[in-house]
Amino acid sequence: MATVKEGKIVIFGAGGPVGAASIQALKSFYTLRVTDLKPMREIASQESPQGPNAPVPELLQSPHENRVVDITCYDQVLEACQGMDAAINLTVVRPHPVLAFRVNMSGAYNIARAAVECGLKRLIHTGPFHHALSHNADYSNDFEVAEDIPLHPGDDLYALSKYLGGHIIQVFAERCGLEVLTFLFCGFRPRKIRDEEKGRGLGPFYTSWEDTGESFLYGLRAAEMPTPYEPFFICSKLPHRHYRVDKAKRLLGWEAQDDFAEMYRKKS
Predict the structure, then answer these.
(1) CA 35 – CA 40 distance, rounded (Å)
(2) φ and ψ at residue 126, rounded to 5 degrees
């Protein structure tokens, strides 16, 4: 059974806002091995590069563990996976033409390979679902889009490198007995809505940081999946109805608590 209701979890790329949200959701239920390319103490002492509204990871104390891990180095990834029950991959590089492939594609390969070698029960992989990529085959004009559709990254560096990494992960899942849940995200925002934001609307694919963190708890604890590789939209239920969110509720038992309704109501 791939369900991980307790035990040890390694998080790769935990220094970003999604890592901060996942740490808050998981720290009371699991022993975490938190890793990033920079020391977590340094990351926790600074404002998020994504701005003041993005969360910064908490520096955890024992029995949790903080490690510096370069996921482009297989030996470091393998060592980080040893003794763990599951892994979460949050690593990403967006603009750099070489590092994007080394992290988003080769790094995904290293994590999947190490997860298989260490006998991990479950891997939660993450990636982007770009609402609009400015080409004729993106899904920006479609409605009721389900997460099982093929991604169309075009020539966008971030989308393409993550797309290739996801395919590598899927091959490991289907051929090596590794159960993989891929969480697809787009936009994030705080749960709290400021007065000046009310009535201004919101894009069609958004999730609060808080709901994002909770999704990992549900992903780890969900029952065995129908297939070895299952993608999920991690998204709030929004009035655009561009993207379906029923699969996450059906297979994970997760649904976003925040619907940001105040952002769609006209001010009285």
Answers:
(1) 7
(2) -130, 155
Residue with tokens 């029960």: 121
Residues in contact with 124: Cβ distance below 8 Å, sequence separation at least 6, in sequence order? 86, 87, 88, 89, 180, 181, 182, 183, 216, 219, 220
Q: Where are the alpha helices (DSSP H) in 103-256?
A: 107-117, 157-176, 209-221, 246-247
pTM above 0.90, yes or no: yes
Residue 30: HSE in the Cβ half-sphere, 13 Å Cα cutoff: 27
Give the tokens for residue 217: 């708890």
- DSSP readout, 72-107? TSHHHHHHHHTT-SEEEE-----S-TTHHHIIIIIH
H or E element at residue 40: helix 40-44
pLDDT attached to residue 1:
62
Would you call 183 helix, strand, or coil by DSSP? strand
Rounded distance between C-alpha atoms, residue 231 and residue 46, angstroms:
33
- Examine the pLDDT at 265 and tell me if it is beyond 90: no
Question: In this structure, what token pair is assigned to residue 104?
Answer: 């988003």
Cα separation, 5 vs 163, whole angstroms: 29
Helices 17-26, 209-221: crossing angle, 10 deg rounding? 50
* pLDDT for the residue numbered 233: 97
